[in-house]
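For reproducibility, we list the full input for the heme B/C complex.
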Amino acid sequence: VDPKLAAGKTAYDASCAACHDAGMMGAPKPGDKAAWAERIPQGIDVMTKKSIDGFTGKAGMMPAKGGNASLTDEEVASAVTYMVELSK
Ligand code: HEB
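The corresponding predicted structure, in tokenized form, follows.
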């Protein structure tokens, strides 16, 4: 397994799955290609920055670093890469 994806899964499971596994409040589920199709074209870097800073979109509110301020920017980037890999 690609080490970046393994690190991404660890961060995802700990800090993102609570919302994203269930699609809670509009959070796009990894593997739901329709939910990701219009997001992925922004690129990993833009999606990562929005995930670090937090943002409000059409579906709902994504909190900064998923509410876990102890995550490094790199861990968030790995989690986003992991989510996108499952969703394209
Ligand atoms: Fe989230 C969205 C990531 C956590 C909720 N997110 C999202 C996205 C991404 C993410 C990439 C897409 C973006 C765009 O489109 O641009 N998350 C993430 C991560 C994590 C998370 C990595 C861990 C750190 N979330 C989370 C949590 C929650 C959430 C915890 C709950 C609380 N998100 C969300 C939502 C959304 C998202 C709701 C959607 C928004 C709109 O509207 O769009």
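Residues 18 and 24 are 8 Å apart (CA to CA). Residues 15-16, 18-20, 24-28, 39, 42, 47, 50-51, 57-63, 65-67, 71, 76, 79-80, 83 surround heme B/C (CB under 6 Å). Both points were considered when choosing residues for closer inspection.
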